[in-house]
Design a protein that fits this description.
It comes from Linum tenue. This is Terpene synthase metal-binding domain-containing protein. The protein is an all-alpha fold and 81 residues long. Helix content is 63%, strand content 0%. It is flat, with a radius of gyration of 17 Å.
Length: 81
């Protein structure tokens, strides 16, 4: 922020744009053919998604109350198919 003379809001907005673009890149790369097994690429993508869930709104790993509702809805109260 000091180097570019940016405000905190500008820095946060810039970082959110970087994250958004990174997810676009991940989605594009996931669609391309690869010699890796689909089971492996699915697990890697799900690992990236779980990191996003745990750290999107703060440190959800250390402060588990931040992700408790998400985990409950996924594992205990799943959407019926």
């Amino acid at each position: 922020m000091k180097q570019y003379g940016a405000t905190e809001e500008e820095a946060v907005e810039f970082l959110w744009k970087k994250i958004h673009n990174a997810w676009k890149d991940i989605a594009e790369e996931y669609q391309k053919p690869t010699p890796l097994p689909v089971a492996l690429t699915d697990r890697l993508l799900n690992l990236a998604r779980s990191f996003n869930l745990f750290y999107e709104n703060g440190d959800g790993y250390t402060n588990s109350h931040l992700v408790k509702d998400h985990l409950t809805s996924m594992l205990i109260d799943p959407v019926p198919l």
